[in-house]
Amino acid sequence: MNAAVTLSASTGLVQLPLEFPLASGLVLEGAMLGFEENGPPDAPAVVVLGGISAGRHVAGWWDAFVGPGRALDTRELRVLGVDFLGGIGASSGPESSGLGASFPPVGADDQARAIACLLDHLGIGKLHAFVGSSYGGQVALAFAANHGERLERAVVIAAAHATHPLARAWRHVQRGILDLGVAAGCEAEAVALARALAMTTYRTSEELLERFGENGEALEGWLAARGREFAGRFDAASYRVLSQAIDLSRVEPERIEVPTTLVAFRGDRLVPLELVRELRRRLAGPAALHEIDSRYGHDGFLKEVAALSGILRGALEVSP
């Protein structure tokens, strides 16, 4: 369903070990990891990951935060982004591998191990920071737990060490929509509908009420448009793999000793504040938690530019 991948000059491909072991006990054979880097090659390196729809082009999906003079200043930092294994883009996924629905499940531990392979390829012994939002935050936690010796600090936004049952229930329904759509020969429509449902969980009820009020047609049109846009990029199998990856990801906070900055949004229904507070209490290393009021709920990691920029600058400050 998604278009052929075009690699820019700043994009690279890394061959992962021929038989790449997965946390599930299965093996992914001949996998590739697509990445993009921006900034001086000798600058402190920072990996930046977002939600399941984000990709290697960090200066695109997080353009308000990445670039010259911004919170992640590409004049001073070497910013690395990747395409998730199991998704779309340059990394191996259901469509690019030809495995389709047979593509094995991947979790945050697997993504973190693939990124460690990327660092080996680039000759980066230790990251200045790992910044992760949403699913990318789960991967950041997994990297901090499993590869802490290669990390100076972690910044985790709108993510926690475990999945909340209500969030898991919503994603289960979305995957059911995908399965029904594929079985009925309506894959694109199913992807669009599942994504539309997901959009209702990313935002707060207050924001939707303020934005649409009683204008049901406007709300329905917005949801349909977001679904169609997503379906133009994602196939059902990739959406299913990454949706399940969120629910498979678990990290024991007690294993994380690197300094960690946490950001939680009040009103985030996918990653409730209390879950992030629990993460903060259980972390073994130094940790700071910033709680932000946001009408955008979970999508605050995309929308709250002023508040997040200040936090990022403080957390990522490079010593002279």
For this structure, the CATH topology of the largest domain is: Rossmann fold
The largest beta-sheet arranges its strands as 1-4-6-5-7-8-9-10
Tally of helical runs: 12
Radius of gyration: 19 Å
Q: Give the structural class.
A: alpha/beta
Roughly how much helix do the residues carry, as a percent range?
40-55%
The CATH C-level name of the largest domain is Alpha Beta
Tell me the count of domains: 2
**Beta-sheet strand percentage?**
15-25%
Mean pLDDT: 95
Structure description:
The chain is of the alpha/beta class. The chain has two domains: 11-163 and 250-316, Alpha/Beta hydrolase fold, catalytic domain (Rossmann fold, 3-Layer(aba) Sandwich), CATH 3.40.50; 166-244, Rna Polymerase Sigma Factor, Chain: A (Orthogonal Bundle). It has twelve helices and ten strands. The strands form two sheets. It has an eight-stranded mixed sheet, with helices on both faces. The termini are far apart.
Task: Provide a short characterization of the protein structure.
With 320 residues, this protein is α/β, with parallel strands linked by helices. The protein has helices at residues 58-61, 94-97, 108-122, 135-146, 165-183, 187-202, 205-212, 216-231, 236-248, 273-282, 300-303, 305-316; strands spanning 11-15, 19-21, 27-29, 32-38, 45-49, 78-82, 129-133, 154-157, 260-266, 287-293. The chain has an 8-stranded mixed sheet, with helices on both faces. The protein has a two-stranded antiparallel sheet with strand order 2-3.
